[in-house]
Amino acid sequence: MKKFIVLFSIFLLIFIFSGCSNKNSQPISDTKFALDTYCTLTVYDKVPKKVLDDGFKAIEDIEKKMSVTIEDSEVSEINKNAGIRPVKVSPDTFYVIKKAIHFSEIEKGYFDITVGPIVNLWNIGTDKARVPSAEEIKAKLPLVNYKNIVLDEKNMTVMLKDKGMSIDLGGIAKGYAADKVAEVLKKEGVKHAIINLGGDVLTIGTKPDGTNWRVGIQTPFKPRGEYFGIVEVGEKAVVTSGIYERYFEKDGKLYHHILNPFTGYPADNHLYSVTIITDTSIDGDALAKIFVMGLDEGLKVAENLPGVEAIFVTDDKKVYITSGLKGNFRITDPEYTLMTK
């Protein structure tokens, strides 16, 4: 199976406590490997299994269009033709790239899908992971600039201005895939469901009994299944970006996969993770990269965006939340402390 390389962040496991008081609700669920992760769709309505199959088809369609490791994907064609010519793409791919540029502006360039050349130097998360030399990083940094992506909406084309540039939609495409699955499921009558793409979670409606879903957030550097806090959500996306699932150590130093596109090195800002709660998964994916901005700047961005909430975890086990989460988030692990800014 083709792998889907994640750009800045891997979306960490988020646990859903989905028990329902309605005992007649027997969910149907299926799990498949796609987008380089395990994707689970769970529906709490009486629908045929074909509904799940249609959801997985939507995921596979996005992967075929946007994976950087599928040679004939639209993104691969864009990268092959960097500095040469524009490439016509589907409305899906055009939309995702346009949204990525939008969020690059909001996040002041700390989210940048053109960081591909730097990602390829580090190869974190593969058996080729290494610490590149300062000279290698310096040589590739000029290729990282989302402003050098040229979009032509009329002709539906995308072009990278300079040879050697490459984009990787791994930091946003998974969220778009979740949104597409939700669209498919809703069209087929689904009113209560959980879409979990490797921990990138999107809920449809509430639980069948009308109460909110309870979502547990993964405890950094602990086994999967251990969570430090719980948030309650209705129809929302919950996406976490953190340093603790894709990293390697060299000479006693930890190098994680969340790269700063300005320096070419892993972000060094005393954060363990950032969780975004918002209406759509594509927005949650892209906004999770405020991790790179650090606690103060990231918190400012999240507070100023309507319909967006965030949870920041620091490396000294302190937790900071946006104002809209007060009363709707609680710490369950005594090692962690909820702070106020």
TrEMBL record:
Keyword Cell inner membrane: yes
GO function terms (MF aspect): metal ion binding; transferase activity
Catalytic activity: L-threonyl-[protein] + FAD = FMN-L-threonyl-[protein] + AMP + H(+)
A Pfam entry, by short name: ApbE
Gene Ontology annotations for the cellular component aspect, listed alphabetically: plasma membrane
EC number: 2.7.1.180
Keyword Transferase appears in the UniProt entry: yes
Gene3D superfamilies linked to this entry: ApbE-like domains
Subcellular location: Cell inner membrane
UniProt keyword annotations, A-Z: Cell inner membrane, Cell membrane, FAD, Flavoprotein, Lipoprotein, Magnesium, Membrane, Metal-binding, Transferase
Family: Belongs to the ApbE family.
Protein name stated in the entry: FAD:protein FMN transferase
Annotated source species: Caldanaerobacter subterraneus
